[in-house]
Amino acid sequence: MSLSDTHRTIDAIWRIESAKLIAVLTRIVRDIGLAEDLAHDALVIALEQWSQNGIPNNPGAWLMTTAKRRAIDLIRRNKLRDQKYSEVARNTDLYTEDDMDHNLDGEIGDDLLRLIFMTCHPVLPQEGRVALTLRLLCGLTTDEIARSFLAAEATIAQRIVRAKRTLRDKDIPFEVPAGEELTDRLSTVLEVIYLMFNEGYSATSGNQWIRPLICQEALRLGRVLAEIVPYEPEVHGLVALMEIQSSRFKTRVNSRGEPVLLMDQNRAEWDQLLIRRGLKALDRSRKLGRPFGPYSLQAAISACHAKAPTAAETDWIRIVALYEALSRVLPSPIVELNRAVAVSMAFGPAFGLQIVDMLGNESSLKGYHLLPSVRGDLLVKLGRFDEARKEFEHAASMTRNERERELLLKRAAECNSAH
């Protein structure tokens, strides 16, 4: 394996393992900023050693062991150490390759949930909570987070720095809260898990269209939350959404790793167990007797696709109605863009294009590649291939995901041959 290949592999491993490392280290040192630094120290050591000696059989266990050793060494060197810190250092076992897998669903998994609640503490502003949690839980760069929120990278970087400093200065506990305190933080926690799942479902950047492990972790955290707060319908709504969306993973890419769009997917290969689990979770949300919130509404939209045996049998009229409801609960240009797609499927591409054209003046969508992508798709359906080609090329120039760029350029090329 070449040095560049090794570095790419290490980067992929880091994206998978970094959240677990930071969660466990935060439990040990009780400082998120310091935990992130220690995790990066382990990454630097990995870059040095793995480039020379090769990647170990269980890189996650190797990184965890190295990071925890660094944490324990730091605690022992700390001039202000007291009996509490010494005891933590003595009682913190190192993970071996044999017991790493066993711990993923137990102690480490619980630490991830504690980390989310810690970073979603109300002492932080809403924007800071979400940005910091995405950085730590998904391993996203500030640039990737900025693109997700259509914000400046410098703004996101400042939010993350301030959030880490505030959590340290306020000595926020590393725990899952109870009672009203849990309820107060729940909406932000749900938002973070939702964004975490979305990043795995459609990666912001890189050479992979999907990152299933991130989705699996988000879904696992959602299921845990549903047991902790079974009386909250939106928790079940989010779980339902993630279950149903996860059912499509096998069909979202082909054998070459290329994206396969929803209407082209082989629905016979959708995971029926996950669909049944999702529909059951949606039913639990409905039975709690409150109006659907944004996650339950999105789950209901996904359920329409899941219940349709073929793309042609999709109930687009109901999906349009659900998007109308979603736009009232969660007004957003992105929701409007999705509604435009549904309108085009239910009533024709000309009606969808009218909505998309009205969104062209939305400043928040100026850097959003799916706006020209959707417009290009509607123009193709209207036979306006030259205009469509330009839209696909524009969208391709904006996306940071290599697989998505290839797809958009392929669609642009198809417009040329459609004449």
Automatic annotation (TrEMBL):
GO terms for biological process: DNA-templated transcription initiation. Residues 20-79 form the RNA polymerase sigma-70 region domain. GO terms for molecular function: DNA binding; sigma factor activity. Residues 115-167 form the RNA polymerase sigma factor 70 region 4 type domain. Pfam families: DUF6596, Sigma70_r2, Sigma70_r4_2. InterPro entries: DUF6596, RNA_pol_sigma-70_dom, RNA_pol_sigma70_r2, RNA_pol_sigma70_r4_t2, RNA_pol_sigma_r2, RNA_pol_sigma_r3/r4-like, WH-like_DNA-bd_sf. Signal peptide: none annotated. Residues 185-285 form the DUF6596 domain. PANTHER family: BLL0085 PROTEIN, BLL6612 PROTEIN-RELATED. This is RNA polymerase sigma factor.
